[in-house]
Specification:
The complex is a heterodimer of chains A (360) and B (539). Chain A is mainly alpha-helical. Chain A has 13 helices and two strands, in the order E-H-H-H-H-H-H-H-H-H-H-H-H-H-E. In chain B, helix 3 packs across helix 4 and helix 4 crosses helix 5. In chain B, strands 13, 16, 17, 18, 19, 20 and 21 form a seven-stranded mixed β-sheet that branches. A six-stranded mixed β-sheet of chain B has the order 6-7-8-3-9-10, sandwiched between helices. Classes of the chains: A mainly alpha (360), B alpha/beta (539). Chain A: It is found in: Cell membrane.
Chain lengths: 360, 539
Amino acid sequence: MRLELEKRPERSKIMAVVSPIAAVVATLLTGAVIFAAIGIPPLKGLWVFFLEPFSSLWSIEELVVKATPLILIGIGLSIAYRANVWNIGAEGQLTAGALAGSLVPIFANSWQSPLTLVAMLALGVLGGMLWGLIPALLKIKSGANEILVSLMLVYVAQLLLDWLVRGPWRDPHGYNFPKSVSFDGWQTMPTIGDGRLNWGILFALVAAVALAVLLRRTMKGFEIRVLGEAPRAGRFAGFSSDRMVVFAFLVSGGLAGLAGVIELTSTVGQLQPNISPGYGFTAIIVAFLGRLDPIGVIVAALMLAVSYLGGEAAQVALGLSDKAARVFQGVLLFWVLACDTLILYRLRFVPGLPAGETAR
Amino acid sequence: MNVSQPSPQGTGETGATSEFLVEARGIVKRFGDFTANDHVDLAIRPGEIHALLGENGAGKSTLVKMIYGSLQPTEGRFFWHGEPVTIADPGTARRLGIGMVFQHFSLFEALSVTENIALALTGDHDMKALGERIARVSRDYGLPLEPRATVADLSVGERQRIEIVRCLLQEPRLLIMDEPTAVLTPQEADQLFLTLERLASEGCAVLYISHRLEEVKRLCHASTILRHGKVVARVDPSLETAASLARLMVGAEIHSIRPKQPRTGGPTRLYCDNLDLAANGPFAVALAAVTLEVRAGEILAIAGVAGNGQSELFDALSGERRVDRPGAVVIEGTPCGHLGVTARRALGAAFVPEERLGHGAVPAFRLSENVILTRDTLVSDAMRRIAGFLDFRRAGKTAARVAQTFDVRKGKPDPEARSLSGGNLQKFVVGRELDRKPLVLVVNQPTWGVDAGAAALIRQALVDLAGEGAGVLMISQDLDEIFEIAHRIAVISRGHLSPGYDAHVMSLEKIGLLMGGAHGGPAHVDEAVKLREHDGHAP
């Protein structure tokens, strides 16, 4: 007897639903084994890591706050990856968006009205779009690889931020710390309730639903899917790959920029050298875990947010290294990819000896 | 078994050896509820060219995939020289000495010919020596190949040569060929037959899958005919007629095509004026001053060997590649050389490309979604039109209508395009365009790799379309098809297009010479013969 993968004639609808659930269950089992292997009672480990984040209102709010930028960036990247456009530089577009949004409090510090926030958000989107436009234009004008260009622009944006907060944009009354002035009033995102939960999540959910509708029901979404699946057929349908590269970078860059300015106006509160714990890169995993589908991305973003919070909790309660979160993210990604295989393939047992032994 | 015995080989009956090289006994293959092969028996002798016949969906591909180890039977066993074997994977099949040339090629487009072949061979290879070996083998067998060429730049016909040479390098005992002549000229097909006959005389068995019954009659020693997954007959094809073979395959008479209407000389539908198109790759073909005219009510066929500019011409006509001069392409009186494919469709043109999967249709999309591909007006009411919402219900209805009109056989109401067989998908792709009632139809290789029943249906549809007053431009390598339905015939060679000649003044020989690069009228044929000899072409 041996196990064999057999290609299905079509994608299995049942497995498309079962696969992510199976992946989560398998991740929990693997986690239990890992905890047992390092001498932590498995159930206690799982509780601290995966369930405690849901045990108090505070941590649920924190979960949502962490998921917000992941959703915004993840849905944008989903659109790009669906269209076969490989934007790896969302972290840079996030930074560029944060910088653009900061123009308002830094150069018009006294302007306080609801429009202040609107202007900051709009500038954030614009900044992310412009930063995304650079790899897009280089790709269609000179064939430069968008993966490399967008990735390298991350470091350009971060160094620009670093220079600005240490130099021209430094708070003159900030005792030489590399920080800009603190934002307040309409320069920050209103909170929901009295915790850290803020309006950002509403932007993320509205954007996710809008993109889901775009992708599923509209001509533009059809164009994205055709060009990603079969570029030649896309050209035959009269769609332009070049225009799609620009569109995908504008959408994903703009959303990353929005995520940047929302982070800035809610949890960070001022410009400083580090404004994001790598949300732009984590969102790549989020996009794939969410099957490049905006609604799926919401779920995936919450899952990765759990692993962040669980990792912090495990450091405190179990004395685990902060690398534990990475391990669980890796295990989860592994199981998701493994289970996804079953959407296009089925497992079957083949009677007889293994291959090779029968050839003689 | 009732297998005919034209080949005298037989290795005796001692021990476990058998007179058969390979035998399938009681093979059953089920996909879910669907039984693709139902207790199929097949036996091939060494040195025998054995035809496997059947309509699309009869189970031929499933059977050969099991022989080649890429699928496993649900029941039944295979025997190799009388010994039971489990062909667990293609590697096992290759070690046994089974080579296969697939209908859909599995080549890496970004790699060269040599690199692609090296990937299929086991062990390390000196690439330079391998390249020389490829050049030599391909030359010996009359399948010329440039080892350093990049696959992406090669035509379908040339890609097939890579697959054949790849098998030949492994010195197979059994060579499986799936629709090999679908992409070849008569001369190339003849050369291939010589190759196969030579292999057979060397003791190699050939399992030959084809819809072209004339060539099966001529080439094959024995045949097994499948219908709905079951063996319905084993006959010696040389003793049959094409019609009797077709009857066995289909289980009914193939409808012969109603005769085409005579040309009426109606208004010009499609006009091409000195169309030039630069080559867009090192191995691509440039179009040079292509001039053609298709009038209402006629079918103009463009014959030619694969890779002589057919795909480039198709792209230039469809607008997938544009030219600066609007007047180079004129559809329904509107110069549109500079316009894209959507604008040309709006003028009443429809296009069917050569490659069904990935060009004419998106493999992972359902048929209803593939309907939208060439009909972007499928946006619902005016309010929604602004936002670009699609009307999937209407698309579904269109898909169902096309499937019904063109007899597209499918396992479920709205399957993904890749799950259809080649013939059924082609019927769908052609039907989708005809459903729009086009004034101009440009179709490239309308029946490539399509079974006899589907081919007849598609050709009839083209004839009917012309009869209704549309202009049809058909690019094809199938000369039988061209003579069957075309009013006029032009030949493309190295990006040059000959004038169109009335079909009844053309002969196979003249077309063959024009394919070789002779231009001007048929009066220049003598010159052409000399030219070809000068060029070093085999006649």
